[in-house]
Write a structure and sequence with these properties.
about 300 residues; Heat Shock Protein 90; 7 strands
Length: about 300
Amino acid sequence: MSGQTIIFFLLLVIASLVLIVLYQRFAFWRGIQTELRQISRKLEDIFEYDSEEKIMVFTDNPVLKELMGEINRLLLDRQKMKAEFKRGELSRGKMLANISHDIKTPLTVILGYLEIMRLADADDEMLKKVERKAKQVMDLINQFFTLTKLEAGEADIVSSRVDISEICRESALGFYEILLEKDFEVELSIPERAVYVQGEKNALQRILFNLLSNAVRYGSGGNYLGIFLHEDKDSVYIDVTDKGKGIEKEFADRIFERLFTMEDSRNREIQGNGLGLTIAKNLAVSLGGNLYVDSIPGIKTTFTVKLKKINY
């Protein structure tokens, strides 16, 4: 065998070895990428569904095993933090409930005395103002108490088959005088037939009362109120629309937070004092539905209540 032939075969062997090494490295990195994608998808699922699962991807790579161990340690820390936050929320809720109860008892007595004094002197404007402020404080305490019970899951809400069309009409009628007094344009789109949802009458009335109060208070600039009831196969939607100042986009996601306040916000008073939107949101969720907001500042703001539809 000539020297050229030997060199050719040696080059061929070297080239084959290089190709094998390159293929193995390619297969190795491809396998790593596949396993990394699996880890990434699993993390996305855990965060999207707020799951308490751990990362379980079978691999022989020691670096990936170490990575998954660290990720799972972080996920465990996350679960502990969530549990501690939940306990803290429950503790704060109980504290607020106790404080509300302790304040409510003497305030009831004060209101009783104020009413007696006002009966003796019905024209005393100072007494009227004091009584009005005392009632506002009592209303705030009652709303704190309601909210803490809702957040603790202790609210006495028993869902049943309810005609939401009738509740919408009754709620709109309850605001007739104040809407007339403030010269509001009112637009209603409520089916005359019964539309049934899974709900509880008092809770639904409270949701609509809070939303309508909010629309009247902060939509007075546009002097418009719209109530629209529509449905699809599985859900019923109630839109409460006004054309007031509106809510800036950066605040829209936080408007239902408990005690959320912000400068120049249409919801500053109701959130910082009345808690109406927070309670409405919690009630809607308790009924298996939800509450959303869509606002174009200066044009229109719509709060949408989503409820479970009953088709029988």
